[in-house]
Design a protein that fits this description.
By secondary structure, the chain is of the alpha/beta class. The chain folds into 2 domains: 11-143, 3-Layer(aba) Sandwich (Rossmann fold); 154-213, Winged helix-like DNA-binding domain superfamily/Winged helix DNA-binding domain (Arc Repressor Mutant, subunit A, Orthogonal Bundle). 45% of the residues lie in helices and 14% in strands. The protein contains 9 helices and 6 strands. It has helices at 20-31, 45-55, 71-81, 97-104, 117-128, 159-169, 174-181, 185-199, 204-213; strands at residues 11-16, 36-42, 59-63, 86-91, 109-112, 133-134. Helix 3 links the parallel strand 3 (59-63) and strand 4 (86-91). The longest helix has 15 residues, at 185-199.
């Protein structure tokens, strides 16, 4: 799964994390490797989108749970701008729902932030070489083959419910959706609940998979 890199080859890495201390730790790990170099750091998803063209990374290390713009939404936007971009999700916790959502929109793997530095380095190299890397310390419950909970057809949702479903699947919060659609948050919550009930879904990760299958998310 690994690709051999010539001595002169360098993998360009961009860091996206809202915690300066974590970025410093990641920077130290990457700087210790002769074949890795940091071309940019962003403290938010919006900053990452603005930085992408200048940084020109091969691989992005992406914090999964950032405020305002989630790791999933940031991944989706970055890969829309640069379709061949490789993204590795990062998390402090062994809970994989956000990470699995990121994989749904194009991330090539994820790593626990507290894992040994060797895992982070391996993930960057493997993903850069075209492979995938999923930290074995994080159970992939969201990736297990399970009965498909969604039995409904797209027509079962009203147009208003579908609009909310698409924005939820893209990682927007109820407040962001309310702002986008010029509606009150309780209205968004009601429509979101209706979507989940009609499609027989329990989690946003399940909704993301349905949205991806139905091409509601731009990849």
């Amino acid at each position: 799964m690994k690709r051999a890199h010539p001595k002169h080859a360098t993998i360009r890495v961009m860091l996206v994390d809202d915690h300066p201390v974590m970025r410093a730790a990641l920077r130290a790990i990457i700087d210790s490797q002769a074949d890795l170099t940091i071309t940019g750091e962003a403290e938010s998803g919006r900053a990452a989108v603005d930085l992408l063209k200048r940084a020109r990374p091969d691989v992005v290390l992406m914090d999964a749970s950032m405020p305002e713009m989630s790791g999933m939404e940031t991944t989706r936007r970055l890969r829309r701008l640069q379709p061949k971009l490789k993204v590795v999700g990062l998390t402090l916790y062994g809970e994989s729902s956000y990470l699995e959502e990121m994989v749904t929109v194009g991330a090539k793997g994820y790593v626990l932030k507290t894992s040994p530095p060797e895992k982070m380095i391996e993930a960057i190299r493997v993903v850069s070489g075209g492979g995938t890397y999923f930290d074995p310390a994080i159970p992939r419950s969201g990736a297990k083959a399970a009965p498909q909970p969604e039995q409904s057809s797209p027509g079962d949702l009203t147009g208003k419910e579908l609009a909310v479903a698409k924005l939820v699947a893209q990682g927007q919060t109820n407040a962001e959706i309310a702002n986008s659609l010029a509606l009150k948050i309780p209205v968004i919550e009601k429509r979101r609940a209706a979507v989940m009930k009609k499609l027989g879904l329990r989690t946003r990760a399940e909704l993301v998979r349905v949205a991806a299958n139905r091409h509601w998310i731009d990849r």
